[in-house]
Amino acid sequence: MTRALFIIDVQNDFTEGGALAVEGGSAVAAGVSALLMEHPDAYDVIFASRDWHDPDSDNGGHFAPAGEPAAADSWPVHGVAGTPGAEYHPSLLLPDTTIHIRKGQGAPGYSVFDGISEGGEKTGELLIANGVTDVDIVGLATDHCVRASGLDALEHGQRVRVLTDLVAGVAQDTSDAALAELAYAGALLVTSDVVD
């Protein structure tokens, strides 16, 4: 068994004070760092994704037009490549071996599978190259990018666990629905105390 950790979008724009702040986002950042410090050998591969949207486009309709309210699939400007909002939260301490995935470059890009590494490889290709069979998922936001990443990992054939104490969502009802959907699709909902 080869286990990977997906750290989804623990960025300044998605934590308290950011453009699309998620309540509890900063606590998730600190909690993920504590997990990695306490269990440095738990994961064979670590992936960390970030929204990395183009600054000069609406990124495939992902950004709401200026002055207009966001719709169901459009959002205020966030995660713009090279801006402080797109950087990892300062409490998130990542190992040097982390594979960094940038997603949403000109497109919506919810799932970690929508992104590419700094070397241009797709997440699915990297999972295969590293022989990954099992994935744990943490990060932001439960009801959007965590959900999409988990469903795609299951479709890719991974055994998936969502560490429910290390995710936070935009809203409680949609986060609960996302977790229920992931469980129905085959993911295990567990807490980080299962990590060894």
UniProtKB/TrEMBL annotation:
Pathway assigned in UniProt: Cofactor biosynthesis; nicotinate biosynthesis; nicotinate from nicotinamide: step 1/1
EC number per UniProt: 3.5.1.19
InterPro entries: Isochorismatase-like_dom, Isochorismatase-like_sf, Isochorismatase_Nicotinamidase
Domain Isochorismatase-like as annotated: residue spans: 4-192
Family annotation (SUPFAM superfamilies): Isochorismatase-like hydrolases
GO MF term (any one): nicotinamidase activity
One GO BP annotation of this record: pyridine nucleotide biosynthetic process
Record keywords: Hydrolase, Metal-binding, Pyridine nucleotide biosynthesis
Lineage top rank: taxon: Bacteria
Similarity-based family: Belongs to the isochorismatase family.
Protein name, as recorded: nicotinamidase
Species of origin: Cryobacterium cheniae
Lineage: Bacteria, Bacillati, Actinomycetota, Actinomycetes, Micrococcales
